[in-house]
Amino acid sequence: MGMKKLHATQLELFTCGWDKSEAVLPAHEKVYAAAFRKLYYHLYSNSRASRAERIISDLSNLLLCKIAGDRNGGGAALEQFLDGKGTANELLLPILLKTFPHLVGEDEKFSLEDKVLRYGLQELAPLSFQSAPAHILGEAFQALIGPNLRGDKGQFFTPKSLVKAIVAVLNPPLWAKVVDPACGTAGFLVEMHTFQTKDQQLSSSGKIGKLIGMDKDRDLCRLCEAILEVVAPHRASVLNINSLDLASLSQLPEEISPLDADFILTNPPFGAKIKITDKSILRQYSLGHKWSLSEKFWRQEVNVRDAQDPQILFLELCIRLLKPNGKMAIVLPEGVFGNYSLGYVWDFVRSQGRVTALIDCPRTTFQPSTDTKTNVLFFQKAEGNHMPCHSSTKIWTAVAINCGHDRRGRSVKNTGEPYPDDFQSIGVSFLDRQSNSGFWQLATLTDPYYLVPRYYDLAPLQELTQEANRLGSELMSLGEMSKNGYLRIRKGHEVGAETYGTGDIPFVRTSDIANYEVSIDPTRAVSEEVYLQYADQQQLSPNDILMVSDGRYRIGRTAILHAHNYHCVVQSHIRIISVAPHSPISAIELLYLLNLPMVQHQIRNMVFIQSTLGVLGKRLYEICIPLPKHTSEWERTIGEFQMLIEKRAALLNRLRDFEHLGYEL
């Protein structure tokens, strides 16, 4: 059976019972994703291969064979293979070696059996790669690969809406040379090509710039090459190379060299578990060396570090690859933007050029693949060799609250409505940012080593000022209140898991605080002896406010202690706030004010997320609240709030009289 004979019948197969009139419509993203997924699971279920990587590798090779056969007259060999007149290694490998010698080695072999490979090639036969929109293939394969296959290598694919926003901010002309040193499945390069050619724009010289992708993973390089062969034929080059080896990059021919790039955009591998320890690589980088803090600035030392996180080296790599005045966008974990031990990174970055913009990404951006919080750095290299350290304090910042999906990756709500996506507006509005009062703000950095974008977001303070004006009150920070003796703030303690269940005194953890109350978990109760060990330090009493300051998701949540539950021990991730009798507001008023939406928004902006854990730290003292005048309206509001809090506390205490010991399962 030849390739041409398969078209109609195979189209019916992979559309899985759809109406035949729909089969002739232009290819849709869901069709390709469904087809690739169906093919993957067939290969997985019907072959002897046990590793998903090998299946993906052979799938990529089949895709390359399809492209080569369609374009380079290799169709006869494909038909022979489908007719059973030879093996895949005899008929298909020569096609790959001829067309993609840089991706396929002489000793390369297909891992799957010929029977399942024939099925795969038959499934690919009806797919029209020429008519598919540019992003379809990459997204379909990204969905297929999924987080479990690549997450262990720190590779998490960038959501399309964020990619589009990054490309729109960079706004590259068609003549530009564009490089992605961690190209994965070509998401950035595909979107770059789509953006540049959407209006068929041409430079005055008619020049079309190169797209160059690099990746250490051979399977991803094959897939990237296949996608770019379809989307941007004769324009792109994909290099299966260790991108961090600058010495090797400098030896590449000019036509495929990533050096002197006009634009670089990338989402590099990141993670503490995949540190770079190769001394030959580390010594090629300034950030691969040790640094020490000398006076007000960090200084590079002679000695090479024992290890460095890959994202730090990739940041320097991108700067090295840029030509003077070249521009870059890179996705980095938030830890890079606010960890003071990494201050040397920012001194190095500012010595090479200037930070031009920052995008704060919501925590859900890369979920469910990873819980790591990320931000995007935009940078322009200096025209000369160096620029003064701390040269730029004014930086454009944008904060995305929504990313188009929830923590589980669902893009549609139960109501059928799509999840909002701020990245779309952030990208579109950048060119008009001077007059736009929406997402983009020109922020003044008050701390050269703390570049978390949302920290400089003025929106919460503006909201608070408006609320203070409405209430006829002044704004005061918790730090000022503490300095004036209105508040006393202290930290809880850790008692150790070995003390759990040793008594009946509650140990209050962050997960126990919700809806202004403390939820008692008897399995974490501790003994009187443990309680007495910390009682003098914590000095808990009724009307003390407990506020979560560290953790994953509950930072800023509060509860108030009362006569029925203040006899407890509080965890170290919680701050204990006591209100003095002469304070201008009571404890119940402070509890109410801390939960105002604009105050919670302010708290969110002050949280720094290191890896997956958030920390409020000393920024807690910067939280501002409006001190209201005690009008009749205010008294009614607070009176009702206090009544509800106290009544619920009394009812919960009464319910404990009905509790009985249960049976342990």
A few lines on this structure:
With 665 residues, this protein is an alpha/beta fold. It is built from 24 helices and 24 strands.
Topology:
Elements: H1 7-15, H2 20-23, H3 29-46, H4 52-71, H5 75-82, H6 88-91, H7 93-99, H8 114-124, H9 136-150, H10 160-170, E1 178-180, H11 187-197, E2 211-215, H12 218-231, E3 236-240, H13 246-249, E4 261-266, H14 279-282, E5 289-294, E6 297-304, H15 310-321, E7 322-333, H16 334-338, H17 343-352, E8 353-360, E9 374-381, E10 394-399, H18 422-429, E11 440-444, H19 459-471, E12 474-477, H20 478-483, E13 487-491, E14 507-508, E15 513-514, E16 517-518, H21 528-538, E17 545-548, E18 550-551, E19 558-560, E20 569-570, E21 574-579, H22 587-594, H23 597-606, E22 608-610, E23 613-615, E24 624-627, H24 632-655
Helix pairs in contact: 3-8, 3-9, 4-5, 4-7, 4-8, 4-12, 10-11, 10-18, 19-23
